[in-house]
Amino acid sequence: MADIKIGAYVCKGCGLGERLNTAQLMTVAQREGKAQVVREHEFLCNGAGVAMIRQDIEKEGVNHVVIAACSRRAKTDAFGFEGVAISRVNLREGVIWVQPDTDEVKEITQEMAADYVRMGCAESARMNIPQINPGHGNNKRILVVGGGISGMTSAVEAAKAGYEVLLVEKTAALGGWLAKLHRRVPFHEPYADPIETGMPALLKRIESDKRITVYLNSVVSRTSGAPGQFSIDISKESGGTTTENVGAIIMASGFEPYDVKKLPELGGGKSPDVVDQAGLEQLARAANGAPIRRPSDGREIKSVVFVQCAGQRDETGKNLPYCSGHCCNTSIKQAMYFKDSNPDVDAVVVYTDLRTPGNGEDFYRSAQRKGVIFTKGKVSEVVPGAELQVKFKDLILNDDAVAKADLVVLATGMVANSGVDIDAAGGTPNVEGQDQAAAGDGKVVSILNLTYRQGKDLPMLRYGFNDSHFICFPYETRRTGIYSCGPVRRPMDIVQATEDATGAALKAIQAAENAALGRAAHPRSGDLSFPAFRREGCTQCKRCTVECPFGAIDEDEQRYPLFNESRCRRCGTCMGACPVRVISFENYSVDTVGYQVKAVDVPDQFSEKPRILVLACENDAYPALDMAAMNRIQYSAFARVVPVRCLGSVNTIWINDALTAGYDGVLLMGCQKGENYQCHFVKGSEMAHYRMSKIDDTLKGMSLEVERVRTCEVAITDIQRAPKIINEMAETIQKIGLSPMKF
Amino acid sequence: MSERNNAMVEKYRNDFLKEVEANVEEGPWVKMCMQCGVCSGSCPFGPYWEHPPQEIFMMIRAGKRDEVLKSESMWMCTSCYNCIVRCPRELPITHIMHGLANYAHRLGIAPKMNPTRRFAKLFWQNIMKGGRVNELKLSVGLYFMDGFANGVKKGLAMLPVGIGMFKTGRLNPLGLLGGGKCKGAGDIHKMVKKAQEIENRRKGFAS
Amino acid sequence: MAKKEYSFYPGCSSERKASASNYMVSVESMCKTLDVKLNEIPDWNCCGASIGYAEGGELPRHAMNARNIALSEKHNPGQNIVATCAACWLGTKETHERLSGSAQLLADTKEALKEAGLDMDYKGDVEIRHMVEVLIEDFGYEELAKPVVKPLEGIKIAGYVGCQTNRPFGVAGESFENPKYLDKLTEIMGAEPVEKYDQKVTCCGGALAFSEPDKSQAQIKKIIESAYDFGAEMIVTPCPVCQMNVEVYQDQINKKYGTKFHIPVMYYSQLMAVAYGGTAREAGLNGNIVRATRLEEIAARPAKK
Amino acid sequence: MAGAVATNETILVVGGGISGMTAALEAAECGKDVVLVEKNPSLGGRVSQLYKYFPKLCHPTCGMEINLRRIKANKRLRVFTLAEVAKVDGGPGDYTVSIRLSPRYVNENCTACGACAEVVSAEIDNPHNYGLSKMKAVYLPFNMAYPQRYVIDQSVIGTPDAEKAKAACKYDAIDLGMKEQTMTIKVGAIVWATGWKPYDAAKIQPYGYDRFDNVVTSVEFERMMDPFGPTGGKLLRPSDGKEAKNVAFIQCAGSRDRNHLRHCSRICCMASLKQSTYVSEQFGDQGQSTIYYIDIRAIDRIEDFYAKVRANPAVKFVKSKVANITEDRTSADVILHGVDTEGYHRYDNRHDLCVLAVGMEPSVDVRTAAATVHVDASGFVEADPVNGAIFGAGCASNALDVNRAVQSATAASLRAIQVINKVSGAEV
C-alpha cells in the first residue's frame, strides 16, 4: 500500500464553484483524505481539466484518482482513465442539486460535500487496481448438450464463427423432434404451406464440419470447472467415458410431449385413434403425401378434429398451466396435411384462443382458404369408438356440440427436459408429474451432472423450465458460462429455438472469450476484480457457498470455500454473507465501504445534525437518486449515500460500524426481491433483506430504536420516492431523537 | 330445385359449407371468417338480426343448414356495406348475405312472409316489366301485398307522403298506366332469362 | 376550362316525375355552369338496386349492369360512365369489378348479353364514377369555388353522406367513417358545414325503408336529430335514396316519436346550382317537400358578381 | 467525429433501441469493434418510453441502466447519435456505409447542467411523450438520455433563443454553426435493428383516434404512467383531465387486419393485460378495465400473467372486435359499439378512456439504404441469402416482445461475428 498516491480533483463547474467552498474541500482532501496531489479546476471534464489529471498520472505518479465533481454515472468518457483506481465524489447530483441554494442551508450543504470528499479519499486509499485472475482458463471449445434442432443450430453457428464444438446427443441419431416431423411450419414467405424440415441438409452440414465432433448415444456424466476450463466426462451408453475440456456449455436438452395418457377424458390412451401432435407426424410421414390412414383400422381418415390446449393452460392444477406456443401453428400445419392430400377431408380445429403471432396470421388464413374449419370451443370429452365423438361447448354459438371424427389430435404441451430440480427441496412450485414425464421411467436424470456445491443442473425458473428471469437479459442463467436454449428454457417453436440457439452460441463464445481474459460475465462484464478470501480467518460457516446466487463457490477437501473465479459474477453477495469478513474484492471490499462509513464526520448529540447512512444499490436506487437530482428533487442534507454493487454485498458490519459511530439512521435501498425479482444478481436483494430482518436484535442490544434501520425496495423509476424515503427517515429521527451513541 | 337440400347435414362437417361455397354468391369466403364480430357490431339493423353475420358464418361451418336458410336474419341487410369495409379479413359480407337470402329464396325455404323478401320479389317483377323502376306501381304493389284491406290502410298512412311527392313532381300519377320503360325491354327479358339459365346450370338448380 | 364529356347513367329515380327528378334538374343546371356535357346512355336499364339480389340473383343482376356498360361502350366509346345515383353507381361499378376479376363470370355475362343483341366486346376499360368524384377529381374544390356568385352565407348545413356513395368504394382520399367532401363542398359554396355532425355515414335503411319502415325510421330519426343537435338548418346529401328517406318520413317520425322535425334535405347539386346563380326552379328547389326557404331566398337575390 | 475509424472487421449496428444496444454490446463483449448509430439524440428506443414490462411489471430503464453502463465501460463500442444510414454499398466483409449526421448544436463539452434550457422560452412537442406534452426547444431528451448531453432543436436555430442558450453556456458547449455531415465508413457486417413504430391510429377510422380526445394509443397510455410523463404519472383523460377509471382496451388496433397490418403484432395482448394492471394500480377497486379482443395471445409461460389478470374482477374480457366508437357529446365519454361474439351479446359500452392497442410496423424501410435486402409483406427484414451480411434484428425483423427481440439481436450479433471472423481469418 506504500505506493498509493492519491490525487484529488475538485471541479468548480456546473455551479459547484458558486455553491461550495472548494478551497475548504481541497483542504479536507489533503489533511483528512491524505491526498498528495490536490487541485481544483473550473471545468474538470473538459479537455484542459482532463489533461491536468492525466499529466499528474503520468508525471506525478498519481495512481489513485479522486474526482470530486458529478455523479459516477456522468462524464464517464472524460474520466475513464486506465490503469488507475478511480473514485468519484458526487458533489453535483449528490449535493448541490439536491439541496436548495439558500443561505440557511449553506453550512450543511458544505458539510455534506466535505463528507463526500472524505469518503471518496477513504475509499480510494483502500482500493487496489484489480489484477487479472491468475487461475483463469483459456479453453474456447463449446460443448453443446442435446442434438435436436436447438443443439444442432448452436453447434453449426458456433462452428461458423470459427469455434470448435462438441455435440453430445443421448440417442443414436441427431435430429431430435424435428427429424420426426413430416413437414415444418413455414418461416418465410409465403406462409401458405408446410415446408420441408431441412433436416438432411443440416445433418450433412454437421457431418462435413471439421470443427464439430458428434458424440451419439452419449450423455454428460460429469461437469466441473468454470468458464474457460470446464472438464467434462462424456459417457457412451455402451460404456466408456471420454474426458474433454471446454470453455463454455450450451444446454439444449429439449422437451418431451406431455403424456396423452394423462388426459383420459380426452381419449388419451383410450383409443388408438386419439393421437398427440407427434403421433400425427408419424402418421403423416407414413402416408408421405397420400391420404393419411388411422391407426386402429388403417382406414383413410375422412374427418379429423384437433383439440387445442389439450392438457395445457389448465387452471385446475391437474395438467400444464402454460401455453406451449407452437401448437396452434402445428395443428394448422397438420390440418393442411389432410387438406393437401384430399380437400374433402373435414378438418376442424377447436380452440379457445388461436395463437399465431407475426406472420402466423398468414398461415392461419391459408389454412382457412384450404377449408380447415376453426371453431372457438372448449372440449370437455372425447368419446372413443369406431367414430370418435368430440364433445365441446361451442363458445360462439353457445351450444353444447358434438363433432364426430375418424381421428382426434390432441395438441398437448411441451415438458422441459431440464434434469434435476435442484431447488425442489426448497419448495419451488412444480407441476406434478412432470419429472416423471421427462425421465420416462420415473427417474429424473441429470443433464449436466455438475459437480457444483449447489446442485447437478441449472436452477429451474417455473414449471421445470430453465429460462432466465430477465426480460432484458434472456440468457442470464445462474450458472456462468452455461447457457440453455430451445424448449428446455421455455416452450417454443422451431423458429424461436433456432434464434435462441444462435444467441446462446454467441453467449457461450463470449463467456469463453472473457474467461480467457480473466473478465467477468454479465452484468459486470469486463470487471477484472474477483473475490479473494483470507483462509486463516475462515470459520467454514458455508454461508458464502450457500448464498452465492451463481453457484460459483464449492468447498475444497478441507471444507474451505473454493472460489471458482470465472464462475463469479462479482456481485459481492459472498462478501456480504461472511460473518468474519474474510472475503473482499480488490476494488470493492469490506474496507472500501467500511472506511467510507467511518470517514463521515458525525457531529455530537446536541448538534441537531443527524447522519443517515444510505447504502444504495448502484444499479437502481443510486441512479434513481441521481435522476432525482437532475430534476432537483431535494432530500435531507444529513444523508450520506454510498453506492454498493448489490444490496447482497452489504456486510452487517457496516451497519454496526455506522450505529456505533453515532449515525442516527441507516437505509438500505435495493431492488425488488421475491417472485418478480429485479435484482440483477438474482438473490442479492433477497439475501440482504433476510440478513437485515435480524438486525432488530442488534439494535435492541445497543438500546437503539428499531426504526433507525430500514431496508427497502427501490426501483430505478422511484425518482420521486427514493428521496421521500430518505426524508421519512430524517423525520423519524427527528421524532425519536438523535442517537445516543455519539461521542 | 336441388335434390340434396334435405339430405342429413352432419354437424361440424363441411357439407353445408361446401353447399354454400358452390351455390351462394361469394360463398367461398365464408370459411375465411375469424369470428371477430366486427360485422355484427357494425350493422345498422344489427339489433334486429336473430343471428348476425359472423354467427351465421359459424353456423354454416357448424352445419346448421335449416337454422341459417330459414332465418329472417340476412333479410335485414340494408346494403350499407359497413361490414365489408370494416372486415379485417375482407369478406364481402353484404354480398354473402344477399347471396344467402337469394339462395334460401330459390330453395323456397326463405321465410314466406318476410316483408323484404316479398318487396324484393315485387321490385324485381317491377323492373322486369319495362327494364326500369316504376315507382308508383312499386309502392302500390307494396301496400297491396297483404291484401286489399291492409293495402288501403297502409296506403292511407302513406298518403301524405305520396301527396307530397305528387305535389313536388316526384311521383308520376300516371305511372300506373305505364311510364319508365326501356325500348329494349324485350331484349332485357331475353337477356335476364338467359342469365338465369346459365346461373341455374352453374349452381345446379333445376330451371 | 375545356368542356368535359361523360357517358351518363341517370338511373330510374332521376327520370322525369320520379322521386329524384329534382336532383336531375339541379345536376343539369350545375353541369351547365361547369361546362359539363352528359351523354345519356341510350336505353339504359335499372341497375337492380340494392334489393335486386333476392329475386334476381347474381348473374342476372350483373347482366343488367353489363348491358348498360356495353351500351355506353357502343354509343359513348371511351367515355367514363358517370352516375348521379349512389345505387346505380355502386351496382355498375361492382359489376365492372367482378367482371374484370372473373373470366367465368365475364363469359357468362357475355353469353347473356348476346340475347339482348349486344354481341360485342365487353372491354371494361372505362371507369364507373359518381358525379361527386367528377367534381372533386376532375375539377377540384378550388375550381368549383370559382363560379360561385351567390354564396350561401350563414346557412348551417349537415353533410349527410350516407352509405352507398361512401362504401364499399367511397371517394378516393376520404375515410369511410368520416368523409369530409360534403363539408368542403358546403364550405366553398359559402355555407357553414357542421363538421362535428356525427351521423354522416349512418344508414337510413335504404331499400328497407319500404319493407321495414319502423326500423328504418329509427335510423332516420338519429340522422335528423343529430343535425338539429349540432344546429344545422338543412341536410345535404349525394344520394337519392338518402334524400328521399330522410325527407319524406319526417311527418311519420314526428307522429311516432313526438318530434318536430321539419328540415330540408338537399342535394349537393342543389346547393351548387343556387350558389352558381341558378333560379329556385333551376336548382329543383320546388321539388323538395320540406322547402329550403333560406336557399329560395338566396336564389331570389341578385348575383354578387 | 466524421473520421470514425472502422474497418472491414468492424460491425455496424443500426438502431440504438434495446435490440441494437444488445447486438452492439454482445459483439463488443466478444471483443469485436462495433459502431452503433441511432437516429434520435439518445439511445434507448421504444423501451425507454415504456413504464413497465410484462409480465414482470419491472421497469425498462432498469435494464437500460445496465446496458448503458456496459456501453460506457466498453472501449470497442462507439456510439453515434442523430445518425442515420443513408446508403450501403458493397458486400459481405466489405461494406461502405454513408451515415448522415444531423447537427445537435451541442458538443461534448456539455455537462448537462441545464443552464441553456433555463433561458430558452420556445417550446416544441415532446417526442418522448408522443407529443402529448410540450418541452423546451433546448432539451435533454429524457432522464436517462445517453449521451447525457443537451440538444438544440432545429426550429430555434436562427432565433434569439438559440443565442440566449449559447450565452448561458459557460462551457463552450453550444455550437450553432454545426451542419449536417456525412460520414463514410467501412464495415464488414451490418446488424439492422431499426425497430418498430406504432401503426398510425388515425388510419383506423372507426375508432376515431383523430376525432375523439379520449381515444389514445397504447404507447401514449404508457407515457401517462410515467411520473415524468405528460400527466405526471396519473391516468387522466385528455378531454377534461378527469381520472380515467373506466378504461377500454381495443386489441388488434391495426393488426390482423387486411385493411391495415396483415400480421399479428404479438405484443399487444400482453401490453393491454399489463396496462390493465396500471388501472388497478392507480384506482384499486375503483378502476375498471375492459379488454376487447379476438384471441388473447399470451404465449408460453406468459399465460401465467393472463391467468393472473383474468382473476382480477376489475378486468373484463369481451371477445369482440369493436365495430366503432362514438363520443358522448356532453361528457366526451367514449361509447364502444359491437357484439360480444361469445353467445352474441350486443353492447354499447361507455368508458372514460379508450386505449387502442396499436400494432407494430417496421420503423424504417431498410431498402431505402440497402435496396436489395429482402423484406416480407409488412416490411420486416426476412432472413435471405440475398441480404449478404446485413442481418435483421429485433423488431426490424419481426413483431417481437422485448425478450424475443433481445434473443434475436444476440443471434444477429453472432451472424455478424461469423462474417467478421471470416474476414480476419480468425481461427480459434
Q: How would you describe what is shown here?
A:
The complex is a heterotetramer of chains A (743), B (207), C (305) and D (428). By secondary structure, chain A is of the alpha/beta class. Chain A folds into four domains: 1-129, Rossmann fold, CATH 3.40.50; 142-256 and 416-516, FAD/NAD(P)-binding domain (3-Layer(bba) Sandwich); 259-412, 3-Layer(bba) Sandwich (FAD/NAD(P)-binding domain), CATH 3.50.50.60; 602-743, Rossmann fold. In chain A, the strands form eight sheets. A seven-stranded mixed sheet of chain A has the order 13-19-14-15-16-17-18. A five-stranded parallel sheet of chain A has the order 7-6-5-11-21, with helices on one face. Chain A has a four-stranded parallel sheet with strand order 2-1-3-4, sandwiched between helices. Chain A starts with 5 loop residues before the first strand and ends in a 7-residue tail after the last helix. Chain B has two domains: 4-111, Fumarate Reductase Iron-sulfur Protein, Chain B, domain 2 (Orthogonal Bundle), CATH 1.10.1060; 115-199, no CATH class. In chain B, 54% of the residues lie in helices and 0% in strands. Chain B contains ten helices and no strands. Chain B starts with 14 loop residues before the first helix and ends with a helix. Mean pLDDT of chain B is 88; it is low at 1-8. Chain C is α/β, with parallel strands linked by helices and 305 residues long. Chain C has two domains: 4-131, Glutathione S-transferase Yfyf (Class Pi), Chain A, domain 2 (Up-down Bundle); 148-300, Rossmann fold, CATH 3.40.50.11810. Chain C has 14 helices and eight strands. Chain C starts with a strand and ends in a 5-residue tail after the last helix. With 428 residues, chain D is an alpha/beta fold. Chain D folds into three domains: 10-102 and 180-195 and 363-424, FAD/NAD(P)-binding domain, CATH 3.50.50.60; 115-168, no CATH class; 199-360, FAD/NAD(P)-binding domain, CATH 3.50.50.60. Chain D has eight helices and 22 strands. The longest helix of chain D has 23 residues, at 402-424. The model of chain D has no long low-confidence stretch (mean pLDDT 96). Chains in contact: A-B, A-D, B-C, B-D, C-D. The interface between A and D is large, with 91 and 89 residues.
